[in-house]
Structure formats: C-alpha cells, structure tokens
What we know:
Elements: E1 7-14, E2 21-25, E3 29-33, H1 38-46, E4 50-52, H2 63-66, E5 77-85, E6 91-101, H3 110-157, H4 162-165, H5 170-177
Antiparallel strand pairs: 1-2, 1-6, 2-3, 4-5, 5-6
Amino acid sequence: NRLFGDTIAASYVVDSINGNLWQPVGKKHKKRHIAGVGVAGYVIETGETINLSNAKISEIYEESVDGFINDDDVCAMLCKPIAFKLTKGMIAPAGCILLRRSVSGRNFLPSDDKLLERLISHLSLVWKHILMLKVEKKSVENLNNEINNASVQHIRSMHCSVGLVECSNITSLCSYLQF
C-alpha cells in the first residue's frame, strides 16, 4: 500500500495441478477460485495486463473473485500476470497481482503500471528460484536414498557378522559401527 497509495492489493496463485486460482487470505487460509473467472482469471488466462478505470462496468469483473465494490463507486483496477520462464524458454502463468483503488475516481497511471511490472519481475525470479529449490531438494533426497540403499546392499553382499548384515540403512549402520 505504501508503494501505490490508496490501494487494496490481492494476489492469486495458479494451482499447477488443476489450474484453479488460490488467493491467500490471512496467514494460514486461502480461497479457491475457478480459473478464467473475473479480472484475475482473465489476466492469468490471457497473460494480458488489465487497467480499468471503472471495474464495476467491465464485462470480466466478478465480485466473488475480484472483490466487493459498492454500488455507486467508480473503482479503478490494475491487474498484471506473474509468469516465469520454463527451462525450454516457454512462459508459464504463476498467478497475478490485482490492485484496486480505495478512493473512488482515481485511475492507475502508466507509472503505477511500470512500478507493478518491476515488482512482478522480481517476484517471478523468486518464484522460479523456489521451484528450482524444490527440484534440487527432491534430487538430493533421491541421491541420498540411492547412496543409502547402495551402501546397505554392498554391506549385505560382504561376508560380515550377522549384526552388520542386519543393518537396513545408513543410520543403523553408523549406530552399529558406533559413529
């Protein structure tokens, strides 16, 4: 709100499994929306930025997704997609950020659009790094399991004491060897 003044912000994240939108609400809760509905859904589906001077009269505005606007209020809305590049150069939608003016009649300027664009470019990089970390973590876990299994199989193939052969993983092996 400090960056954009009299603004209410909402973020939406694409569920990579079913394509629905998740909107964080508070610290522990989130609200599910059907993909393609409302300004947020349209922006994610098309990848286009939407800058509306009066969202209430727009055909794509949906109160349940984009937020409540009082009957007579003129509500400016700016919504930009968050995307990141996949390994093969393709761009995948990750979500969007929707800004709504809390003061009636005040539009979003091109400078607001540029500022939000810069913010989203940084968010896209963070998003990409989070996904890369998940992949790396899974790779490390798989490698750890392979090393664990190979070590145990190697020990079992050796002609050792019964106690050593009964070790089923690295932890039990280390315990047996008193490391």
